[in-house]
Amino acid sequence: MRFTSETSSDGVCEQLFFLNEIPGVLWTPEGAAGTRPLIVMGHGGGQHKKAPDILDLARRFVTESAFAVVAVDVPGHGDRPLDEEYHRIATENQARVEAGAEPAPLIAEFHALVARQTVPEWQGVLDAVQKLDHVGAGPVGYWGVSLGCGLGVPFVAAEPRVRAAVLGLGGAAASADDAARITVPIELLVQWDDERVPRDQSLALFDALASAEKTLHANPGKHADVPVFELDSTLRFFSRHLT
Amino acid sequence: MRFTSETSSDGVCEQLFFLNEIPGVLWTPEGAAGTRPLIVMGHGGGQHKKAPDILDLARRFVTESAFAVVAVDVPGHGDRPLDEEYHRIATENQARVEAGAEPAPLIAEFHALVARQTVPEWQGVLDAVQKLDHVGAGPVGYWGVSLGCGLGVPFVAAEPRVRAAVLGLGGAAASADDAARITVPIELLVQWDDERVPRDQSLALFDALASAEKTLHANPGKHADVPVFELDSTLRFFSRHLT
């Protein structure tokens, strides 16, 4: 793990790093020492580790809850090079959708493919970050919607250190088997008029989760219209389960 | 409005009253003076104005939010005499369910009938309570699940003083038209494995609400298994909209 920069503003320390070839960012309270809860955040499709929604929520985790937060670029995103295979598949999918194919199954299949790479990558990031003195091996949460849900479901299913997760804007198409292996508390965000994820697929993902505590929050609006009050709920959810 | 008793405990003043023949209870902070938000609470079927769930949540509204809370017995419930017509219909419905009829439409039809009486009753209670010095004409919220939802949907639709409501454990069967007239923020509680309300009816009620801000919270379990953390959410919802 190689740190390339460290800056601080308004109580939040931001460290950019590489783990092997994976570019990442770690946010912690300024002057933090000792073990604390850690949130792994997965960004959306076409986005990156410091996308505005990630950055805003990460800063809130740090300033309001004194958590650490880590995010890395998904292959082919942010500061990572174009991945030839993923790019080819994404381009083919785009053409199939323009020719009239249903996008949801194609997206789900693509997420499942990428997850085979990102699950071990994120587990390696978790190993490395938890060795740092100002993070430590505390309780871990996962937050991710859209692509971050498609990659997050297999990650949460595979990673026993994750104790609670906020997921959403994703369907069960490719991840029902993984969802059935998840037993930790989940808050699942559903946009009622999501133009990318069919409603029945969102509800099927909620059904598939094996968690005894799982709560579905549905709100009107399209894929990107998650209301601001859900961020408050997310902070409380993780405070309840990680502290 | 005739008060029949007043007691206080742990910071909560409880006043029992009659408005005409309607028995009610008003909870306010001990020593309260001046206008404050008011929550009207509707109890469940076979329950009464001081049922444990009503009492527990009312005390939290008072102690944590300094709200006033009012609840009255629904006809045929609590301290009210048996209503011959309602009793006859309920008995007939029970027999039809035992003979194999679907309970949900019968329940919905029954709620719609009772609501024609309770909507004006509750409006009268609101008139009377808001004239009291320690309540006043502040913002009003409504809370009710199960029977309290069946009667609450038409009440919230009819009563412009209600600015926000928590509803749930009820379906759209008899109340879709009323729901379509509701435009205030709603938090709707759904039990995913509700043995009394079909899931599609709960989702149809959410769909039918005309509110720009409406949020559906679904949790696993049967009709009576609403998790405790939803009470915290309810308190925050009303704080956000009434203060």
Automatic annotation (TrEMBL), chains A, B:
SUPFAM superfamilies: alpha/beta-Hydrolases (SSF53474)
InterPro entries linked to this entry: AB_hydrolase_fold, FrsA_esterase
UniProt keywords, alphabetically: Hydrolase
Hydrolase found in the keyword field: yes
Domain of life: Bacteria
Keyword Hydrolase: yes
Family of the protein in this entry: Belongs to the AB hydrolase superfamily.
Protein's name according to its UniProt entry: Alpha/beta hydrolase
Organism: Streptomyces shaanxiensis
Native organism taxonomy: Bacteria, Bacillati, Actinomycetota, Actinomycetes, Kitasatosporales
